[in-house]
Input
Amino acid sequence: MTESWATFGADLHLELAAGRGLRAGLTEALREAARSGRLAPGLRLPSSRSLAADLGIARNTVAEAYAELVAEGWLTARQGSGTRVAERARARRPAPAAPVRRPVRPKTSYSLMPGSPDLGGFPRAGWLSAARRALSEAPNEAFGYADPRGRVELREALAGYLARARGVYADPERIVLCAGFAHGLMLLAKLLRARRVREVAVEGYGLDVHRDLLTGAGLRTRVLEVDAAGACTRALPGSGVGAVLLTPAHQFPTGAALTPERRAAAVDWARSTGGLILEDDYDGEFRYDRQPVGALQGLDPDRVVYLGTASKSLAPGLRMGWMVVPRSLMDEVLAVKGPTDWSSSAIEQLTLAEFIRSGAYDRHVREMRLRYRRRRDELVAAVGERAAVSGIAAGLHAVLDLAAGGERAALRAAAWQDLGLQPLSFFRHPDSVAPPREALVVGFGTPPQSAWSATLAALVAALL
Amino acid sequence: MTESWATFGADLHLELAAGRGLRAGLTEALREAARSGRLAPGLRLPSSRSLAADLGIARNTVAEAYAELVAEGWLTARQGSGTRVAERARARRPAPAAPVRRPVRPKTSYSLMPGSPDLGGFPRAGWLSAARRALSEAPNEAFGYADPRGRVELREALAGYLARARGVYADPERIVLCAGFAHGLMLLAKLLRARRVREVAVEGYGLDVHRDLLTGAGLRTRVLEVDAAGACTRALPGSGVGAVLLTPAHQFPTGAALTPERRAAAVDWARSTGGLILEDDYDGEFRYDRQPVGALQGLDPDRVVYLGTASKSLAPGLRMGWMVVPRSLMDEVLAVKGPTDWSSSAIEQLTLAEFIRSGAYDRHVREMRLRYRRRRDELVAAVGERAAVSGIAAGLHAVLDLAAGGERAALRAAAWQDLGLQPLSFFRHPDSVAPPREALVVGFGTPPQSAWSATLAALVAALL
Output
């Protein structure tokens, strides 16, 4: 026993030398020894006096460490029986390492995968300035539990911005902040289910994660085919759906702008059936050639839920989105959001509010719009006759239509160039009956500025 | 017609003078006029040339505004028919204002409502410094879509901190960040439902919002009565529950520390039945008199999900929480979290990581611990013989047991003092059969430092 205690003491000593407090180090060392089984369950420990002498530390330190471990259940202390290692002290170590599954995109040297802005363009300095002002001006209550709609400062800043820049009827009272578009869509899906809606119309091309969110909430999706005029909203009447998810300003990913007639058809359908339009305005800020196209929500704020996000205009990493909700739906939205779901940090909310108020948001969008527009022009010029480029009046991606067999060849060639590319077919709804298009969705917003030229060259090489 | 145009022009002019760009101002004015019905559907607009002359602006500006409004569906332009207000342009105005329901606590001059730290103690300067370093060091990819578990930098910082300060077996690979405790509990409730668990044991006193979260996910709750030794975990075997939600370090709100025997009983139950322990370690950092009490999770990291939060140690407004998940559950947790739920801003995550790494978190906790300890001592001294104070070895609140009839009298007197107070009965599970206690839960952490003395005086007055 003496020997094992000597070993034990030496180990402890190592721990104690590691710069932690004496008591903390001793406690940790004893806990580990009990946990690992090095100290067997039932083993009687030396008295605090003798261990203290052994280690050359105060007796009280040992006694306190023992007491803590008794409180935690590692040791037992019974009158007359001394301090022992508890029977269940042999805690199971965590199960052996198994690979943790996580969704990762394949890493390539170059990437034109759509869906991301140029992350190198994030306005770090401006954001920090806004954070400084926000932190110095925030009332104390801002750090507490808060309005489930989000901070009023941000809702007010957004209301002004959305009315001005996107033609949205935006009352701060009816704005609900959320952790990005997907969070908002999840809340709306729950709301629709609670209303006994069974089916939601979605565009024939779109994001599978959004469709999965809807089906995950128990809703079926029904295809609205997409053409050069956007989604065929005339198919809504008689379809029996309770809602429709649309990207009117810039169809994702085909890039069409929903025509006035089709906007009107959607609103007419919603009015006559009581249906709901979910407007995904993911990149409405980035329009190049034409007049800005305002939000559909302006046509009927009582039948459209407008969803916006900072993911394209600033960064997805902010996890910041917003909904402008018809008044008649506010109670239901707040009910599904729940009293305990505030989603995003009040500091970040106040920072974004300050960023918008100060004009930094507008300046940033303007600057990035120029950058993306330049890239778009270079893309069109570089692609030349190799593909028909479309969907480029706005946004951070373009569609390149290829000749028959071109999609597969391009993807194979891109792999050789170590270039990440997404085919249009990836976005196709499985139920779509539209004639398939051989095309690529090129996210020209994605590369960092320094890699843009090389990435473009890799694309051109892949199209040869 | 001339007259109405004159009116119209004058209104436009007002808009145009408001400092917006000419085209934007004109577009907005026309849109509003169509929206409000002031321009009737079908009405033919003047030619762009004549309106331009009328307003004294370039014809192109008018033509561009017309084109934008046609694209948005407010106007129609047909060859030979000129530009007209669209038939459905009479957009419905948002429904008339109805009061938006939102949960608010009654506002009182003084508050001892439990559940909040002193929001005035938020370390604004230190947080901003950490944000500055985080923003300057963050790789670009940090601003993008990310690992659904959260940033690795924060998971690593937390793993070190939790092992050191809370005795948690914390592998960064098994930490999942969430938007506060409630978000984590919601995910776990979904996971339990997916595992076909029907019932979860909860403590006889606890937060109704947590119980509601469980029942909202389709789970029933079953009471574990609470006494001075914490929750009666010996009642777990045979209860048929699939999981138990516990506050072992500091029962909320009674303040008991779960005894070693009861910890062991919980772990034994979990091991023998395959049940899961959800450990809510909401204020484990704030322990005053006794040795720190480590987390229950250390006893069996494969059967305990540890849930921590920055809501008490820093601020609820951060919406930052974390789970340490048994390896065997990681896939399921990530599945319910979904690929599109990242919850909190990467910048805030990196800031908190930096705040912990730099030692600022430890310093802040130490400083606040001193502050709360001082308040606790003053509370005990001030209350004196008026009530039996308990649950004060840790945390930000105390329980004041009163004589029969005392609770009601104290609440009435507190209302006169304009003091917010919560009775213990508020936290009682409706199914609890324990003899009721007349008591108050006093959140001495809640008041700002400047109001502490006055708040304490109001409490004493209410207890007279």
Observations:
- Chain A touches chain B through 110 residues (CB under 8 Å).
- Chain A has three domains: 5-92, 110-116+362-462, 122-359.
- Chain A has 14 helices and 17 strands.
